[in-house]
Specification:
The chain folds into two domains: 2-30 and 318-419, Aspartate Aminotransferase, domain 1, CATH 3.90.1150; 51-314, Aspartate Aminotransferase, domain 2, CATH 3.40.640. 39% of the residues lie in helices and 14% in strands. The protein contains 16 helices and 17 strands. It has helices spanning 2-10, 46-60, 80-87, 100-111, 129-141, 146-149, 164-174, 196-205, 225-228, 255-258, 274-277, 300-316, 318-337, 340-345, 370-378, 402-419; strands at 21-22, 25-26, 29-30, 32-33, 42-43, 94-96, 120-124, 150-153, 178-184, 209-213, 232-235, 250-253, 346-348, 361-365, 381-382, 384-386, 390-393. Strand 2 (25-26) and strand 3 (29-30) form a beta hairpin. 46% of the residues are buried. Bound molecules: pyridoxal-5'-phosphate (PLP). Residues 99-101, 128, 130-131, 184, 188, 213, 215-216, 236 line the site of pyridoxal-5'-phosphate.
Length: 420
């Protein structure tokens, strides 16, 4: 298997990208970093992009808003082209802004507008806390009762896998009571990738809106949000998008929605037309694109880091990355499923079908639990732990190699042997 890993690295046309990232060190060596699903590594270009804006601020002060190559007043336009390629949409449909949870609150104020019996929101059971809290708040703020209106769908068979058919059946069952379906692209805990197009079509067929949290999907799997007819989507940029801790969030609104004047929104001055913005005349003149949802002037330093990372994605190309990702994660799965000792100790909760997952595999440790995790961390592996007993392993095609995966599995096997 080591030979196979070496051969796969040899024939990897994206292998050179690894050297464009900073790796955390342990004992003078690169750690085996398999945690890009939680915090992506820093591209070496990032420092220069951020320095440039620090310099602009030093040299220009407030004039930086309107002068230079990338004036701050319209800095958000610089990320649109790259983001549109990643999520499959028009440039007008996407804007980098705020943080994810803020965007999770903004979206329902436009796309959850209950009336009469149409007042329910469908999410998956075990949703990420912010996502749960956001839709819970939206229901409370609308004067409805979450006990009636918040529907959490769980798999019928009690496992972690939620078949698309069950999601579609639930949407149909709720029918005219359903106002919004908000689902993950990739579920953060199980790693399951949901069928965005089918869920959207089903929601629309009963007159509901469909929105997606793509925190674990953007930069991981190529998407086609415009064609799929998705109403809105939100994400963060610090996971697979490598744009730094707490980095700028992202927001997609379908052009069919952005054009409509009857969809209300929480608005701010940055969502109003730039021509009139500094007249301070409080005219209502929202931008008829995703930009109309902007609240504040742009967080330039975080957006600068975002631009550096997006440039790496442009060079690598998300479709090529996905191709490598399927091989890389498939290799990890192969190593686990052909190891007797790992089969005894690990239950994989991520779908086996590569079309229904991204980079991440979630491994449930059936016997030894946390001490195994602690041991592999001591050996220089960085990955994350989720209660009760899950390690999430995300080999990232931009900067992980097949040897990283091979070495990780060796370390995991050794840790289990030593501890059992
Ligand atoms: C990472 C993540 C968040 C985090 O939200 P922040 O506002 O960036 O802190 C929220 N929801 C999901 C599904 C996530 O994966």
């Amino acid at each position: 298997m080591k030979d196979k890993a070496l051969a796969l690295d040899q024939s990897d046309e994206l292998a050179a990208f690894r050297s464009q990232f900073h790796f955390p060190q342990m004992d003078g060596k690169d750690c085996i970093y398999l945690c890009g699903n939680s915090l992506g590594l820093q591209p070496k270009m990032t420092e220069e992009f951020v320095q440039e804006e620090l310099r602009n601020w030093q040299e220009k002060g407030v004039k930086g808003h309107f002068t230079g190559e990338k004036p701050w007043v319209s800095y958000h336009i610089n990320s649109k082209k790259s983001l549109a390629k990643l999520i499959g949409c028009l440039e007008d449909e996407v804007v980098a802004m705020n943080n994810l949870t803020t965007n999770l609150h903004l979206a329902p104020s436009s796309f959850y507008r209950p009336s009469g019996n149409r007042n329910k929101i469908l999410i998956e059971r075990g949703a990420f806390p912010s996502d749960f809290y956001a839709v819970h708040s939206a229901i409370v703020l609308s004067g409805n009762d979450p006990a009636d209106c918040l529907i959490e769908l769980e798999p019928k068979d009690g496992t972690d896998y939620l078949p698309t058919e069950e999601v579609l059946a639930k949407i149909e069952e709720l029918g005219e009571q359903l106002e919004l379906v908000m689902f993950p692209g990739i579920q953060y805990y199980t790693g399951q990738f949901f069928n965005i197009r089918k869920i959207t079509e089903a929601a629309h067929s009963v007159g509901a809106n469909a929105g997606f949290d793509l925190a674990h999907t953007t930069g991981n799997i190529p998407l086609t949000l415009h064609e799929d007819g998705v109403d809105f989507a939100v994400w963060c940029s610090y996971k697979y998008l490598n744009s730094g801790p707490g980095g700028t969030g992202g927001f997609f609104v379908h052009s069919d929605n952005a054009r409509r004047t009857d969809i209300p929104k929480q608005s701010g001055w940055w969502g109003h037309k730039a021509e009139g913005r500094f007249k301070m005349d409080n005219e209502i003149n929202p931008i008829p694109t995703a930009d109309g949802w902007q609240l504040s002037n742009i967080n330039i330093l975080s957006h600068a880091a975002h631009l550096a990372s997006l440039e790496v994605f442009d060079r690598a190309d998300i479709h090529r990355l996905r191709k490598k990702s399927i091989l890389l994660t498939g290799f990890l799965e192969e190593l686990i499923s052909t190891s007797e000792i790992l089969q005894e100790h690990i239950k994989m909760i991520t779908p086996r079908n590569p079309e229904e997952r991204g980079a991440q595999l979630s491994l449930f440790l059936t016997k030894l639990g946390k001490p195994v995790f602690e041991r592999i961390v001591e050996e220089g592996v960085i990955l994350d732990w989720r209660e009760p007993n899950v390690i999430r392993v995300a080999p990232v095609p931009l900067y992980n190699s097949f040897m990283d995966v091979y070495e990780f599995v060796q370390i995991l096997e050794n840790a289990i042997k030593e501890l059992s």
